[in-house]
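**User:** My hope is that you can spare some time for a protein that puzzles me. As I understand it, each token names a local backbone shape. I would be glad if you read both lines and explained how they fit together. The protein I mean follows directly.
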Amino acid sequence: MAETLTDEVLIARAVQGQQQAYALLVERYEHYVFTLAVRMVKHREEAAEVAQDSFLRAFRYLPDFRGEARFSTWLYRIVHTVALNHLRKKKPEVHSLDDAARPIRLPDAQHPDGAQQLEQQERHAAIHQAIEHLPADDAAIITLFYLYENSLEEICQIMELSMSNAKTKLFRARHRLKTILETSAVRSAL
């Protein structure tokens, strides 16, 4: 049933007081909201708090949603704002790089492309780890553009940027990501 209902239908029902409709919206977007929150605040526990606060804020302001943008764009804007507010209140902490280490699953030895799978998993792990080392805004714009495939127009709405500013931030974030990846590749080669 959840797959056949559009966001617009669920929003209308939630505004009318049907809590199950909002629960379906939360279920539909919880992974995306949490991932964006993790990219920005860097810690899973804090990201869970940011995600929860974002959904509460979205529920509170759902009657104000006008549908001028997609619901996901509107929701990600809320997540971005809540995460930035969280970061402003938080004092900087120092953490070990080992905290973000993710185990790499070894490919099936029976599979003919095992080495290729392992290489791809290592690349993905390196990229995700590099994104975690980016500043919050850079991690957010990279995640929104590449992982969630948002258009630049949607990113402008989410992050409240002009088009030229969004393009510049995306260019600089790509450059910083590339630098991090190259530096980590050099370190691992040593």
